[in-house]
């Protein structure tokens, strides 16, 4: 689990396994040790013709939760399905609906029981953040991650292709 | 914006808030529904395959639960504002307490303070019973959005 490509493959398989990520077309841009960047593409199902003030109404929250969760995959030696304990988002400016929404998340601390992440959401440039978020995740403990699901996410020779 | 104001007015008269909810594209994607019981408004997120995040349990995506609760607060505030307008979120903080299973989820928003500029909300989400919440959230919204860019 030292190749950057392994992180990419693992995160991509994780996103593919989640119906809601498929529904929104959320995909991985980049994965590296402890960090991942995702994108929410512009799509007609999220465009409002009536309101142009508050555009993504809640979908930013889903994107942030997803990215924070994906960043934990890049911080653990083996895949563990970690439930979110706490998520906090500060909104700095309103995103526009005509541009994709990017989020870069970093898992900056791993303990025996808890993972800590931070994320920033942006559109045209990372230096103009739309929102910041911090989250914590619980590690499930040995034997509490579904072994078939783990094998599927980690890939490997005998795992079914996602 | 005029269409929003008209919809809020109509909703208050008819008691049917669904057209207002359908105005937000993501609320439609999630399938959020709104039910009024007297003055109490309860929001419902019906179980649907597209909202699953964890296929092993299966459980609703954590972000879906969070967004649903954020939208609940937004709609509740919009309904209560003396001058209808869409409030703008400042921050959102969520505790996940139990896995959201693949079944209907309900949420209710309590507005603890509604000032001139800021509204303080707390939201509770549950599935089988209210006394066993799956998540609780706190949010602040900016109310006089016309004056801010």
Please characterize this protein's 3D structure.
- Chain A is α+β, with helices and mostly antiparallel strands and 162 residues long.
- Chain A has one domain (4-154): Thiol Ester Dehydrase, Chain A, CATH 3.10.129.10.
- In chain A, 26% of the residues lie in helices and 30% in strands.
- In chain A, strands 1-2-4-5-6-3 form a six-stranded antiparallel beta sheet.
- In chain A, a hairpin with a 2-residue loop joins β1 (27-32) and β2.
- Chain A is globular and about 50 Å long.
- By secondary structure, chain B is an alpha+beta fold.
- Chain B has a single domain (2-147), classed as Hotdog Thioesterase (Thiol Ester Dehydrase, Chain A, Roll).
- Chain B contains four helices and eight strands, in the order αααββββαββββ.
- The longest helix of chain B has 19 residues, at 62-80.
- The radius of gyration of chain B is 15 Å and the shape is globular.
- Classes of the chains: A alpha+beta (162), B alpha+beta (149).
- At the A-B interface, α2, α3 and β3 of A face α3, β3, α4 and β5 of B.
Short description:
Helices cover 26% and strands 30% of the residues of chain A.
Total count of helical runs of at least 4 residues of chain A: 4
What oligomeric state do the depicted chains represent? Answer: heterodimer
The CATH architecture name of chain B reads: Roll
What is the fourth-level CATH superfamily of chain A? Hotdog Thioesterase
Count of the domains of chain A: 1
In CATH terms, the superfamily of chain B is: Hotdog Thioesterase
Distance between the termini of chain B: 15 Å
Separate helix tally of chain B:
4
If classified by CATH, what would the architecture of chain A be? Roll
Task: Describe the sheet with the most strands of chain B.
Answer: 6 strands, antiparallel
Query: In sequence order, what are the helices and strands of chain A, one letter per element?
Result: HHEEHEEEEH
Domain Thioesterase (chain A): 54-126
InterPro entries (chain A): HotDog_dom_sf (IPR029069), PAAI_dom (IPR003736), Thioestr_dom (IPR006683)
Keywords (chain A): Hydrolase
GO molecular function (chain A): 1,4-dihydroxy-2-naphthoyl-CoA thioesterase activity
